[in-house]
Amino acid sequence: NVGRYGVLRLFDRRSRRVRTFELDGRYADADVSPSREVLATVREHDGRRDLVAIPMMLPERSHGTRTSAPRLGSPRTLASEAGTAFSTPRWSMDGTRLVVERHRAGQWSDVVVFAWPSGDEVFSASVPGTRVVTPTWRPDGRAVVAAVERDAVGFDLWEFPLSGPPEARRLTSVDGGALWPDVSPDGNQLAFVSHTATGTE
What we know:
This protein has strands spanning 9-11, 18-20, 26-32, 38-45, 48-57, 61-62, 65-66, 71-72, 76-79, 84-91, 97-104, 110-115, 121-125, 130-137, 143-150, 155-161, 169-170, 179-183, 190-193, 195-196, 199-200. It contains no helices and 21 strands. The protein is mainly β and 201 residues long.
């Protein structure tokens, strides 16, 4: 129930330098598209969080090495609703869709998929009486995986198919719960964050 918002920064793993991007507004939850041409993020604005996309302009290469960090263009709003907070956008593997958590005032949170670049909503999923958060993609793009909190006893991971039978499938049942899932590229392994008596794992 606590969020921290601010500027977007780039960490260069080779030089180990951090660069701050100069943008108006407060941002969080950035994810780079597979093409590395667009940054999906959320922007805090008038008491809500909008889903935005920001073009990334890569510098020219010199002798096989980029001479500077990427530059960011003007943010484009993809989804904005009064009293609504979007969080944790994630690109599909083919870069044609974004899945994001949506929390409308007075309602349980759900997950929604937007087409790129149109911004059209093409799918939404929820479990009645639960919070659905931190979504990610199955590598084949046919389903999303998200953390679901039932009866305020902790989160477990569920899979939501985007076509065919609409029934969600529970994937985990672990002490300490499961959040922030990520599926391996071959689809055979599932990583997540769990909270235990000794800390976060």
